[in-house]
Amino acid sequence: MNFKKNFSFSLLGAGALLAAGAASAQEVVVKIGHVGPTSGAIAHLGKDNELGARMAVDELNAKGVLIGGKKVRLELLSEDDAGDPKQGTAAAQKLVDAKVNGVVGHLNSGTTIPASKIYADAGVPQISPSATNPKYTRNGYKTAFRVVADDVHLGGTLGRYAAKDLHGKSIAVIDDRTAYGQGVADEFEKGVKSAGGKIAGREFTNDKATDFSAILTTLKAKKPDVIFFGGMDAVAGPILRQMKQLGMTAKLIGGDGICTAELPKLAAGTMADNQVYCAEAGGVDASQKQAMEDFRARFKATTKLEVQVYAPYSYDAVGVMVAAMVKAGSADPAKYLPVLAKTEGYKGVTGNISFDAKGDIKNGALTLYTYKSGNREALSVVR
């Protein structure tokens, strides 16, 4: 009797396993790669992007996704490029070898641009949530897209803002010689000059530097009232500290690389109210504000962290990519890529997303910010 009972239970167990196996066999796995610097000085920004992408994948899996009539399970394959171009291309090749269906990343222009050729050669669609150097979408690769405005818009807007709104009479420029930092600084300089402003001096550093006393002392002699820094918050924070040590009261202005929640901590409490102004390549109008606030609340509840900068754009990059797969009825890159390129009016948490012929977002927004009491405050959204 015990034998029969055990045997019948075994059959039931085997039947359950076979049923589970059949269900599993019907489920299609779609691999989405993510690459960003999850180690090094700007790991907090890379992790922010990764968590945004992961949140999108988890939410879509929870809702259920059907592509071509088949149930799909999305899988995020994340790689660390440490903000280094060589490591970035190695990560890109690893994802291509893993047969990913698409890639969200990279974070930095300096890693995104060289990696884009690898994805293009393999025919793998790539959407960067944060790379702003214009060259990324001007190489003619049909696989390259971004969901934020580029440096021509960002740098130029900040240059005009420094000259007109901040009334900069003596404007200095520092850049970190990366593809992003130098690129946005060049566009800033053009914006200043187009607004009738003058550049008093330009210096450069690198993205690993910690001592800026020499370049700041050189600029101090020129008595700048505004200093632009093209680079990331990990360098901008120490620059602010050393400006204070030298008694410099100039306003610091920068792009999205410095426009983070982490900047006040990196400046170690040396930031004065309204001393720092920055722009984020993205932004939401009043009609989209609630959707962004809801995202930030979900992000914090899920990750126990505040959004740094581009998590919402990583989230939307996954969403728009999967939407193209669903519309095409296939996750095969060759089949959904043409649909992705024709994306019009996708409703994301960051606003409506449409791509132009180059793969750039149409009518991309910028949000201008300042800092008060250690908190970032939005000033306006510019398109």
For the record, what CATH class of the largest domain applies? Answer: Alpha Beta
Helix count, per DSSP? Answer: 12
Which architecture name of the largest domain does CATH use?
A: 3-Layer(aba) Sandwich
State the distance separating the first and last CA atoms. Answer: 78 Å
CATH homolog superfamily of the largest domain = Response regulator
Form type: elongated
The SS-based structural class is alpha/beta
Helix content: 40-55%
InterPro entries: Leu-bd (IPR028081), Leu_Ile_Val-bd (IPR000709), Peripla_BP_I (IPR028082)
Family: Belongs to the leucine-binding protein family.
Organism: Roseateles koreensis
Keywords: Amino-acid transport, Signal, Transport
Structure description:
With 383 residues, the protein is of the alpha/beta class. It has two domains: 199 residues, 3-Layer(aba) Sandwich (Rossmann fold); 129 residues, Response regulator (Rossmann fold), CATH 3.40.50.2300. It is 45% helix and 21% strand. The protein is built from twelve helices and 15 strands. The strands form three sheets. It has a seven-stranded mixed β-sheet with strand order 8-7-9-10-11-14-15, covered by helices on one side. A six-stranded mixed β-sheet has the order 2-3-1-4-5-6, with helices on both faces. A hairpin with a 2-residue loop joins strand 2 and strand 3. Helix 3 packs parallel to helix 4 and helix 11 packs across helix 12. The longest helix is centred in the N-terminal third of the chain and has 25 residues. It is elongated. The N terminus is likely disordered.
